[in-house]
Amino acid sequence: MIIPDLPHEEAEEFLAIADGLDMIFLLAPTSTPDRIQQIGKISKGFIYYISLTGTTGTKESLSVGLEEKVSEIKNSVSLPVLVGFGISGPEQAAKAAKVSDGVILGAPLLN
């Protein structure tokens, strides 16, 4: 289950009622090493890495520093790290997939 605006600090109630469901938490380019560790401890299934700050939708290029941040997260958590948010089409998806464990697409499917 993904609840996009749910801070992990306020997730206890949802974790209790999500019996049998994987709670997917989000990390961003601005996530600190401490937050990465905390999210890694309470997440189930995978980590959703929001590849850029700003609004969702298709973008002309992947964010600068994507590979480095995904690597930092993968070195800090035991779950797969999937990249989403701002991925535009197959070329960007392939590039994101090379540095992560998977890609999440939304806007390209709707456009």
Distance between the termini: 24 Å
Main sheet, how many strands, which sense, barrel? 4 strands, parallel
The overall pLDDT, averaged over residues, is: 84
Task: Provide the helix percentage.
Answer: 25-40%
CATH architecture: Alpha-Beta Barrel
Strand content: 5-15%
- Indicate the overall shape: globular
Determine the CATH topology: TIM Barrel
Describe the structure.
The chain has 111 residues and is an alpha/beta fold. It has a single domain (8-110), classed as Aldolase class I (TIM Barrel, Alpha-Beta Barrel), CATH 3.20.20. Helices cover 36% and strands 12% of the residues. It contains five helices and four strands; from the N terminus they run αβαβαβαβα. The protein has helices spanning 12-17, 33-42, 66-74, 89-99, 107-110; strands at 26-27, 47-50, 81-84, 102-104. It has a four-stranded parallel sheet with strand order 1-2-3-4, with helices on one face. β3 (81-84), α4 (89-99) and β4 form a beta-alpha-beta unit. The longest helix has 11 residues, at 89-99. The model has no long low-confidence stretch (mean pLDDT 84).
